[in-house]
From TrEMBL:
Entry protein name: Branched-chain amino acid transport protein
Keywords on record: Membrane, Transmembrane, Transmembrane helix
Keyword set includes Cytoplasm: no
Segments crossing the lipid bilayer: 6-28, 40-58, 70-89, 94-111
Lineage of the organism: Bacteria, Pseudomonadati, Pseudomonadota, Betaproteobacteria, Burkholderiales
Keyword ATP-binding appears in the UniProt entry: no
Highest rank taxon of the organism: Bacteria
InterPro entries: Brnchd-chn_aa_trnsp_AzlD
Length: 112
């Protein structure tokens, strides 16, 4: 009996996923947006990136209270600065990510 529920949920979730992800591919060409809305939509990826990255950099979760606290000296900030500087100097994405991960590991394990 649980197999019926499992497969019905999987099929329903698959159909919902296909519909929502293919909406703009099927209807998007016929959908005319005003220039004002098109101008606003171009900032959506930047806003989403900021909404994901900024909390990870500046907030740490307290293990005891399970609340987030502002942390100006977190390991992520140092690693981010090292990654940005190394990319600016070398223009190598692989090298800058490697340096950022190395700094994150060092600060997390040895300086905290």
């Amino acid at each position: 009996m649980p197999d019926i529920y499992f497969w019905s949920c999987m099929i329903t979730l698959s159909l919902v996923t296909i519909f929502t992800r293919s909406f703009f591919l099927t209807i998007g060409a016929n959908l005319k947006l005003s220039p004002k809305i098109r101008n606003l939509i171009q900032y959506a990826p930047t806003g989403a990136l900021i909404a994901i990255v900024i909390p990870e950099l500046f907030f740490e979760k307290d293990i005891v209270t399970k609340s987030y606290q502002f942390a100006m000296h977190s390991a992520q900030i140092y690693a981010s600065i090292a990654t940005i500087v190394s990319y600016y100097l070398s223009k190598s994405m692989l090298l800058s990510l490697s340096i950022g991960m190395l700094i994150l590991t060092l600060v997390t394990n040895y300086l905290s």
